[in-house]
Write a structure and sequence with these properties.
This protein is of the alpha/beta class. Helix content is about 40%, strand content about 15%. It has one domain: Uracil-DNA Glycosylase, subunit E, CATH 3.40.470. It has a six-stranded mixed β-sheet, with helices on both faces. The mean pLDDT is about 95.
Length: about 230
Amino acid sequence: MSRPTTIAELDAGIVDCRRCPRLVAWREKVAREKRAAFAEETYWGRPVPGFGSTEPGLLIVGLAPAAHGANRTGRMFTGDRSGDWLYASMHRVGLASQPTSTGLDDGLELIGARILSAVRCAPPDNKPSTEEKENCAPWLDDELRLVSPSVQVIVALGAIGWDAALRAARRAGWTVPKPKPRFGHGAEAILGGPHGDVLLLGSYHPSQQNTFTGRLTEPMLDDVLGRAAAMIEP
């Protein structure tokens, strides 16, 4: 299979992907049975492509779509509380045109940024298997290849996003520090990309597990995203 040469080709391939039987079965089951609050809505129920600029200075890498979030709406981090936190923060630091993301037709635009995930289908219990992460890795590789000329900063949300970004950079032939940089909130590493150095920043994932417990606060998220925003040109 030929590799995509544009983001549009990549997105079309992602949406049609059926590489992981367990994830295909789960995402489609959720889309059929729905949550009561969304019973009248038509769920997306497919893999979720990246969202944002096709020439981003900032790349944000998350874990996977939420079952009743992006798997319902078709846009990364849209329709769930993690997304409420992320987009509100992005708006505060100048990376998003509005503080909310509710659906594909809500008018939201990202400013110099693109959001994607390590795994493109909603996994049961938000836990993709090692094989599923490996099956999905080529999509991340292609997306990184297509946007790398403009990328100056990568923000990884959570340890899985951090590991996925490092692995993709290594597979692409980028220079990655040794030993492997450790994930943490505010952690950073310099990656040697084909078009210059890229700063990798870590942030705790804006999941309810982190935001409800205070492990991640709004100022903490704003600090990481603000640092990233200050380093890119829209």
